[in-house]
Structure formats: structure tokens, C-alpha cells
Fold Putative DNA modification/repair radical SAM protein.
Amino acid sequence: MAQLDVREKLEILADAAKYDASCASSGTVKRSSVGGKGVGSTDGGMGICHAYAPDGRCISLLKILLTNSCIFDCHYCINRKSSNVRRARFTAKEVVDLTLAFYRRNYIEGLFLSSGIIRSSDYTMEQIVEVARSLREDHDFRGYIHLKTIPDADPALIHQAGLHADRVSINVELPTAPGLRRLAPEKSAERIEGAMRDMDAAIADAGEARGKYPSAPRFAPAGQSTQMIVGADAATDGDIVLKASSLYDRFGLRRVYYSAFSPIPDASAVLPLKRPPLMREHRLYQSDWLMRFYGFQPKEVVAAADADTGMLPLDIDPKLAWALKFRERFPIDVNRAPREMLLRVPGLGVKAVDGIIASRRWRKLRLADVARLTVSVAKLRPFIVAADWRPVALADKAELKPPAAPRREQLELFA
């Protein structure tokens, strides 16, 4: 490792970081270096990933590991102790210099830093914190910083990470405690959730302090997030949805990210031989969206899954699957239905529902009026009643998947 130059290290450690999906820059506070003070801003090649802010801006982040060496031997991790991969390690100063150099070349607007565990959890956490501390205090860096924290590290180090970072994240790794014990026996679900609980309390305390004293230091203003690996164990989609909902409720997480298991070289015999369909990951994100923005309760999302397997259908989205299971609730009158029921209509998004509610105060809505608020009215027609439209009742024998589901297109082999 000592003979590698910085470029070679960057190539290895940027590639090793690609398995971490919990990379986002939403929710942070605005900072700027306008006026010649500081370096970087939150307004605004190799190892660079793209995240999206709430207002739709694309933000580029330098996404790397401090090292891909690790003293743990988690079965699902390509960087595990027994894995036969090329190892590399950055010093804290090298990461700081890379971040500043990339920013000054307008390649990035922030840093996402994670790491394998070397020597001990405390030693590794010290190195991660030192990167953030140096950027903030030595160089007055005002860009975005996301740090992956280590649950077993000293709470004082975790607290320092929150003082310097915009967002912190602690991976729960797997949806169930039995799965974690089987595939990552050196990790503990209790310790992981304990670290999340402490971080949530620290964020709440800092928010309360700033409410009383505006000069109080900020603490992880973009909150905390986590990531779950999907398909490495026997957890069903229903298990994952319930786990995610529990994490949101108990620890005030900003996001739960899902990462489809990817087969790795020299894999353990306890791992599946092939990856789960990427569409499964997508359906879980859609389910997450339903709970966060559409008012669905976790048990409603679970009800959309197959009763025997606990899996969400891959050919249609969870919202349509739920509507087809509960056909007796449809069609609904767009001129009278409450907002929470309109949000359950397949094909109606939050903006479209808000537009319907605003428009119907002035006139009776016709099907053409609803069509102007949506991308396609074809998916809506079986589920709504308008001033000039009333569909046939949604009988069990009615086959609604073809008109409601997305059209399949044959791709050309030599396009």
C-alpha cells in the first residue's frame, strides 16, 4: 500500500465505495464562500457521484473510502478481512487535499467519506473525524460533508463527527437481527440501534439549543440516514418495509436506502448465488415514498405484497398493487374525495392531487381537466369518477393490469 500513489489509491478506494447507496446531500443548511471567506458552498471523474437536493439540483460529491482494509469478516462485503482484493489506504491529509483540489477544479461540491475498520473502531473513527475537522477548521471548507460513522466507536468521537458533518449515517446492514448474526457475526443490531438512538438524541438536543441560543453549534443539520442490503438473506419485502418504518419512527431518520445484494468474488457459501432483481430495489424505494409522502401506513404497503411470499410484485408498482387488492374502495369521485384517498389513486402524484383540490373549489372537474394535471389519464380511468365520466365497477373478474400497468416494449438488439 505504501508504494501506491494518490491516483492509484483513488482508483481503488473510489471503486470500493460504489456499494454504499446512502449518498445524498438533501436537507443541509446553506453555506457560501461568497465574499472571499472560506472554501466551498452547499448551494450549488473518478470517485465522483451525483446526489439530488430537495429543489432538484444535482450535487457532485467525492465518494471514497478512507481504506478498504477491514478487521471484520462480514460475508456480504467485498472488503471483508478474508477477501482477496487489492488494498489501499489514504491518510487524512490526502483526503483533505483531494477534496480541496477537486473542489477548486469545479469537479465536486462536497465529500462522502466511509471506511473499512482498521486497528479498532475508535482509531478508524478518529481518522474520519480528522478529515472533517481539518476541512472545516484548517481550510474553512463550507461544502457538504457526509460521514459514515462506526457504531462501536467512542460516543465522543461520534459527537465530533456530528459537529463537523452535514449528515451522518450508520448502516443497519441487514433488515433482521437473525440475518445480521448469520452474515455479520461481529456486528450487533443492538449496538447499531443504540448508536442511532444516541445520534437522534444529540440532533434533537442541538436543535433545542439553537432554538434558545442562535450561536449554538450546528449538529448534523441534514440528519442521519442508513442503508439496508436487499437479497442477501431471507428477509421479505414485508420485513424490510416494517423495519424501515420502525427506523423512521424511532430514530427520526431522513432516509433509509436500499442496496440490492451484488455477488462478490470468492463469496461465502452462505450467500445467494445470484443478485436479486434490481426492480425489487426500485419497488422498495417506491414503497418508502408511499409511506413518506402519500400517507400510506406500513401495514397498507405490506398488504400490497403477495400473501404467501411477502414479496411486492415486480411487474406493477406497489400503489397499483394495493389498489387492485382493495378494489371495493374504487372508483372515487375526484370532486368529493378527501386528499388522503386521492393520494391512493394509481397514477395521481402529490402535485396532481394538490392541483385537483385547488381546482375543484371553482368548478366541477371533468375527465379532461384531470388529464391536464397528469402525465396519462389512461391509468386513472378505472379508479376515478368525474363530472362526465363513470367507469364500470371494479369487479374481481376485471383485468386491470394491462391498461394500468406500464407498456412493455421490445428493445432492439442492434439499436
User: Anything to note?
Assistant: Residues 31 and 359 are 38 Å apart (CA to CA).
